[in-house]
Amino acid sequence: MASSEEDGTVEEKENNNKKRSKSALATAWLTFYNIAMTAGWLVLAIAMMRFYIQKGTHKGLYRSIARTLKFFQTFALVEVGHCAIGIVRTSVIVTGVQVCSRIFMVWFITNSIRQIQNEESVILFLVVWTVTEITRYSYYTFNLLHHLPYFIKWARYNLFIVLYPLGVIGELLTIYAALPFVRRSGMYSMRLPNKYNVSFDYYYCLIVVMLSYIPRKEHFQ
Questions:
Q1: Nearest to 135, CA basis, from 173, 167, 180, 177
Q2: Does the pLDDT at position 189 exceed 50?
Q3: pLDDT value of residue 214
Q4: Close Cβ partners of 63 (under 8 Å, ≥ 6 residues apart)
Q5: Before 193, cis peptide (omega within 30)?
Q6: CA nearest to 174, candidates 76, 77, 106
Q7: Would you tell me which of 142, 186, 193, 221 could form a disulfide with 148, CB atoms 3.0–4.6 Å apart?
Q8: Contact predicate 120/158, CB 8 Å
Q9: 190 three-class SS
Q10: Any residues with CB less than 8 A from the CB of 141 and at least 6 apart, and which?
Q11: Helix (H, G, I), strand (E, B) or coil at 200
């Protein structure tokens, strides 16, 4: 009887040790990831400020930071993986929608339609994204290190009130500016007849995307 209890205790200890090691590994990875993403968005912020100081205009700014922006925004797909494997307790669907909507704005709108890259609305959502991400990733980093400055905590939960509507306005105006070019070019659209017997109009797809921005109750919960 004693031997069986001892075996159970040993097995329980081994399981606890495995959980601790997995937890430590996950924490180390998340700390590294959040530091890297904070640094990446800080690089973007510095690049944007330097460009504007040197050139005195926002025209050409997007193209100057496009490669860095695409890399760090696309790399954020890793966060969907974090949710999927359970090291971050957030909905996979919610995180996936948030990350993919950003990637859509970068790759399929701003990057694909050069004519809109100098729009003020592009700069607006870029500035909002940059401030938001620096705040968010630095908050996660300090939280993981158990040393969260009051200012970072305050910024994380209060800047949202201003940044969220500004970001939405910037993104909507950018999509709106893209509509005439999409309609004229027929980009990403499929017309009938074709061998797949499928019709798709990217112009109307963008209108649907714009309608999806209509505030709903859950956005503010």
A1: 167
A2: yes
A3: 82
A4: 117
A5: yes
A6: 106
A7: 142
A8: no
A9: strand
A10: 31, 34, 35, 38
A11: strand
The verdict on whether 164 is a catalytic residue reads: yes
Number of domains in the chain: 1
**Average predicted confidence (pLDDT) for the chain:** 91
Contact 77, 103 (CB under 8 A): yes
Q: Which domain holds residue 182?
A: 2-219
Per the annotation, the verdict on 139 as an active-site residue is no
Alpha-carbon gap, residue 101 to 108, rounded angstroms: 10
C-alpha count within 13 angstroms, C-beta hemisphere, residue 19: 7
What is the pLDDT, as a whole number, of residue 220? 42
| Angstrom distance (rounded) from CA 108 to CA 7 | 58
The tens digit of pLDDT for each residue in 70-126 reads 999 999 999 999 999 999 999 999 999 999 999 999 999 999 999 999 999 999 999
Average pLDDT of the residues in 175-179: 98
Q: Which residues are CB-contacts of 21 (< 8 A; sequence separation ≥ 6)?
A: none
Helix, strand, coil fractions of the chain, as percent rounded to 5: 80, 0, 20
Catalytic option among 164, 176, 188, 213: 164
Residue the block writes with tokens 């504007």: 52
**Model pTM?**
0.88
Query: What is the rounded distance in angstroms from the CA atom of residue 151 to the CA atom of residue 41?
Result: 18
pLDDT at 125: 98
Instruction: Give me the catalytic one of 79, 119, 133, 171.
Output: 171
CA 125 to CA 129: how far, in whole Å? Answer: 6
Distances 154 to 30, 118, 128, 132 between C-alpha atoms, Å: 22, 33, 17, 13
